[in-house]
Structures are given as structure tokens and as C-alpha cells.
From TrEMBL:
GO cellular component annotations of the record: mitochondrial inner membrane
Subcellular location: Mitochondrion inner membrane
Family note: Belongs to the complex I NDUFA1 subunit family.
Keywords: Electron transport, Membrane, Mitochondrion, Mitochondrion inner membrane, Respiratory chain, Transmembrane, Transmembrane helix, Transport, Ubiquinone
Membrane topology designation: Single-pass membrane protein
PANTHER family: NADH DEHYDROGENASE [UBIQUINONE] 1 ALPHA SUBCOMPLEX SUBUNIT 1, NADH-UBIQUINONE OXIDOREDUCTASE MWFE SUBUNIT
Origin organism lineage: Eukaryota, Metazoa, Chordata, Craniata, Vertebrata
Function: Accessory subunit of the mitochondrial membrane respiratory chain NADH dehydrogenase (Complex I), that is believed not to be involved in catalysis. Complex I functions in the transfer of electrons from NADH to the respiratory chain. The immediate electron acceptor for the enzyme is believed to be ubiquinone.
Protein name: NADH dehydrogenase [ubiquinone] 1 alpha subcomplex subunit 1
Length: 70
């Protein structure tokens, strides 16, 4: 019957989801709790560079907020 395909479909779905979730978790672990930024347009690159400068550590994921801007 048609429902015999459900276990195979569930296994394939889980196998397709695992790499994306695992990648996001690895990025969060290596970047101090924040997901990795993906730069697709020049504005995003500019903001990443600004956050590196503002953080004082040279890492975009260590941004401190408005109190660090002089």
C-alpha cells in the first residue's frame, strides 16, 4: 500500500536535514555561540569588517555593542 513508503521517506528526510543542522551547530561552537555570517553583498562585508574593528579583538563574533564605539 501507499503507506509502505513512509519509513523510507522519513529516513531520507532525516539524512537530508542532518548536514545543515550539524554545520550550524559547528559554526556556533567555533564562533563563540553565534552562527557564521555569510557575506553575499558588499554591505554585509562592510558590516562584518565594522564589527571586527568595534570588537577590539579582531573577531566579528565578539562584538560588544554601542558602548565600544568611540
Amino acid at each position: 500500500m501507499w503507506y509502505e513508503i513512509l519509513p523510507s521517506f522519513a529516513i531520507m528526510t532525516v539524512c537530508m536535514i542532518i548536514p545543515g543542522v550539524a554545520t550550524a551547530q559547528i559554526h556556533k561552537f567555533t564562533n563563540g555561540g553565534k552562527e557564521k555570517r555569510i557575506v553575499r553583498v558588499p554591505w554585509q562585508w562592510y558590516m562584518t569588517e565594522r564589527d571586527k574593528r568595534v570588537s577590539g579583538t579582531g573577531n566579528y563574533h565578539d562584538s560588544k555593542g554601542l558602548e565600544n564605539i568611540h
